[in-house]
Amino acid sequence: MDNPQPRLPTLRDDLRCTPIVEDRRHLYIIEDPVRHIFFRIGLEEYLLASCLNQAKNLDDLLEGATARSGVVFTPEQARTVLNWLASRQLLQTEDSAPLLAAARQDQAMQETRRFNRLNLVSFKLPLLNPDPFLRHVRYLSWLTGWPFFLLWLGVGIVALFTLAADWPLFTGQLNGFFGPGNLFRIWLIWFGLKLLHELFHALVCYRYGGRVYEAGVLFILFMPLTYVNATSSWQFPSKWQRIHVAVAGMFIELFVAFVAVLLWAQNPTSASGFIAHNTVIIAGISSLLFNANPLMRFDGYYILSDLMGIANLYQAGLQYVRSRVSYFFYGSSKPLPPEKKFIRGYGVAVYLWRFAVLFSLGYLASHLAGGLGMFITLGAAITWMGQPLINLRRQWPLLHQHNPNLLRHLLKRLLMTGVLLAAALHLVSWQKRVEAPAVVEYQEQYSVRTKTSGFVTGVLVADGDKIQAGQMLVTLENIELQFVLEQLRLQMAQLDLKIRLAHSTERLTDLNILQDQKQALVKELVAAEEDTANLTITAPGDGVCISGNLTNLSGTYLGKGQELMWIVSARQKQLTGTAAQNDIDDFRQFSGKTVDVDMRAAGMGIFQARLNRISPTATAALPHSALGAVYGGPLDVRQAALSSPEQGLEQRYRFELFIPRFTLSLDLPPAIQQQVQAGQLATLLIRGTKVTLGSVLWDWGKTWFKHKDTIADGRG
Predict the structure, then answer these.
(1) 266-279: per-residue pLDDT in tens?
(2) Which of 47, 204, 414, 596 has the least CB density, counted as fewest CB within 10 Å?
(3) Quick one: three-class SS letters along 342-360?
(4) CA nearest 121: which of 259, 251, 309, 296?
(5) What is the radius of gyration, based on Cα positions, of the chain?
(6) Using alpha carbons only, what angle is made at residue 143 by residues 142 and 145, rounded to the nearest 5 degrees?
(7) pTM for the predicted model, two decimal places
(8) CA 662 to CA 577: how far, in whole Å?
(9) 3-class DSSP state of 595
């Protein structure tokens, strides 16, 4: 006697099903109103699911679906649909064999989800239901229509032409963008843009009748990004409506960037211009690099999925790669080719992107966030590598049943993979591109400072005048110093008289004392005469006078050591660069040779200059103020006090580099010397040594552990 078939489960009564036609295909959207989740299924899946409530067993289900459609369904197809419905919690809770199998599958999926929540690279934090708020701001829906688009288009065209015209100035202000003083400002602008981004997703979703029931914060390396759950757009009958929802966030971010360009162009050097400049960069990076990237499940992915007409493209691509990996390592069943060949390449690209992001974010985290960054890196690595091991442990009995030689097969494939990986680490190589910041400065330059204090009585030169060595520049007056000099000269005359008298009377003891007094007095007199002579300031060399405040000096009091002007050789300019310690060996190979110099930001293009000198040791001294981040340069600096307390207040502090660097000196071509100005920034470009993928990873690991030890010792 045959065993009776178990009773099948039934669909939940509260589910809503909406038919749509897309690319001449009949599809159905299943809405779960309790969890606000949407699923898209095909016609065959819908026929089986719709007949489920009228079927007593599997045979009844197959007969009913065949009678309605005329298509013959197999038991395997029915079981697949049942398992899928059960894993999505769309069935009633009655027992059945297929449901039990699916429940086990669902339990495994829940375990995987719980494990994924441990991912320290990215995780979600749902916060609120924005639906009541969005109902009150639905009047803003005009911002999602054609009038605003035409405004967006007009502003965008004007902004792009403005940016193209001022491109050298715009790129020149990029130096110091990631400086320590700008990081908090970047975070505020980024977070504000993301709030606006998600608001527009929600507004467009409401425009077409959708709802948004969840909003929260998505953390990527603990950097907060806002998000809204707009999955209700899946029920929209037109893919162009869904694309409109996906593109809305980037649309408004670009509009903000366009407006920021116009504000920046009004006054690029002001505080508001600096904020506008940051906004343009951040909006561009977030829109193009993140949101438009189809390899991440952001806006670009959903746009691509709808354009290709492939539902769940991300999952399909990952599933194909996983099945191929399972077939290669475990000897499981050979996977069937995907519906479209595009899915294969997409799945491989996603995994490559994942690994690239993991290594990049891990590297940045370990260097920017110190011990916390290393903890994040380690946690992410454990999560990514631990999940396949957990899946293998769970699936081992089934895999072993399918392949009795599973262990031997796995070891062979792991050995093969290890050999191929080692070969790739050794053979994959490229020419390292090395960059170093530099600044234009005068080759011969003299700083003219006061050697004694006094009031300015005469300024004999002006800014831009040609100067000859020994020429009188500024005269000072110090009545107190002149009085001291007269007193010393009077004392010297009196002392000479006493010495002659003692010598004539042969008082040898008194004579020795007086001569000792004279020697001391001579030293004071020489110093006073030297200070008096220094009241007249002369040029130490030939050149051109450079100063911005000579006209305001008359009658002012100047302290000792105060800078008055610079005398520079106007025709002799050079480049002063600074190289990191990791790159100095590459630059030493170019000593006495030409290197590429990038001055496109200054309108000079790319030219070559001769590297004539490299400092023998690294130093923390800032080669030129224009290179420091506090002055708009690319190098991070810190304030340090000078050791000499005798310096004036303006000279008691200086900025020095966080990490010592080597100083480079380069000769500029004669034609370039006539065009560049002192203080302009440049970038030195060379092709360094050939590096392999393995050497890069090895160097990164050594840096990581070195940083780890430094923090553990309390030095970092």
Answers:
(1) 988 788 888 999 89
(2) 414
(3) HHHHHHHHHHHHHHHHHHH
(4) 296
(5) 38
(6) 65
(7) 0.59
(8) 8
(9) strand
